[in-house]
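ok so heres the complex, two chains, lmk if somethin looks off
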Amino acid sequence: MRILNASGCLDAIAAPDVARQLDAFVTKTVTPLPREGSAPPRIAETAQGMLNAIGLANPGRERFVADHLPRLAELGVPLWVSVGGFCAEDYAETCTRLPDGVEAVELNLSCPNVDEAADSAAEIVAACRAATRLPLYAKLSAAHPDVAEVARAVAAAGADGLSLINTLRAIALDRRLRPALSRGSGGLSGPALKPVALHAVSVCHEATSLPIVGMGGIFSGRDALEFAACGARDVALGTVLFTDPGAATRIRSELAAACAEVGVVTPEDAASLVKSPETGPKVPA
Amino acid sequence: MQSSGSPSRHRVVGSERLGPYTLLRLERGGLEPGVPGQFFMLEAPGRLLPRPFSLCLAPPGELAFLVDPIGPGTEALCALRAGDTIAVLGPLGHGYRLDVARPLLVGGGIGIAPLPYLAQRLGGSPPAVLGFRTAEHAEAAALLPGAEVVIDPVLVTELIEPGFDVLACGPEPMLQAVAGLCPDAQLAWEAPMACGFGACYGCVVEIDGALKRLCLEGPVLDAARVRDRVEALA
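and the predicted structre for the whole thing:
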């Protein structure tokens, strides 16, 4: 099991020693043009979670490829580039500009803080498949009524893997009952998200044979093992990095104990313990 | 980046009331006190996210933080008792430049928090002017013996005389007024932060005319870097 960061939850240039704890670093989403992002306030704490509305702040693909990517490459950590856009062509064009040294592309098909692309997830994946030979991971939202159906569609369109899940669109109110974030709504992350994410991983694992990077409220080795049990091959850390920059190292060391506790040797073995996610128990008794 | 490991745990040595505020004293452990104006992320018991605080005092073997109970996280910190432990990360960000010829410390309300340690590092008791909402809030002025104190409706900016190197911390309207009066002032700003080391992108404020992360650029900024913002708000 590899441990990555969730896109947008770490600046590897500002905190290189945090990034070096990861098996791969996933960049903040890159869009065709630079974006300053949302006005503050951008974050709010909620019960067992937090909201963010960063708004895909990023330097745009030209500056990203020319300036940021070479600096990220110096870290010595495999790089995944998160790609965003507003139509299939946006995504595909960015894919064509990425060098071969990039380990994988994560297609952000589900940012809750921008208006969604008009094209379907499968159309975007198909356009990118035609544009690059780099491995393509489709990052999906659990807000879709049937995320397994979307997973099947992106698999058929040529995706090599799935990243599950993105934050869920939500609002929080301040003391005077006004939205706590300037954008109004934001993306919910943190422990509150974990049960939703585990379900999405389970049903997409059932629906496709694609490798899955599971994420959503992973704070411990036991959490990571639960994602493996539901079918995730790898995991990504988001909100936990804000509270514990040493989380990747800590969770990696906790995984061994969590495996021993349920009687498996590796996290991969845990997947065999789970039967049908919709009918059977999700974790061993 | 000052820390890439997990936050370290620190025992509460004591907790003292100063008007509505609480001075929370922690065992220093292996942490450096850093430069005045830098900040630490303190675990807020029972809450998901830590909270940022500048260092108030650095007694031998201790780190002390001034906490204003304004929400569930700060209330939980004020409820801590000697012997409790919390996770601490820091020091983080950029503090005040100390190479000033004629320092004048200017603080408003809970914004006096970094000034006692700043005074210590400037070598004793530089002149200080402090403003508070009420006489009860002004009890915190005991942290800076010798400071001139005013209470609303008198404004602390009325006490600033020309010719000083102003180092200020306080509410945004106060900082705007200080920036208008003293273009060379160093101002400690505040913003909600989830992480404190540039990961969450949550703490942006307008700096040099663009939205930038306060945790990496500040929290202490030269007034010139926020001038566009101050003028836009005026």
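quick notes: The mean pLDDT of chain B is 95. thats all i got rn
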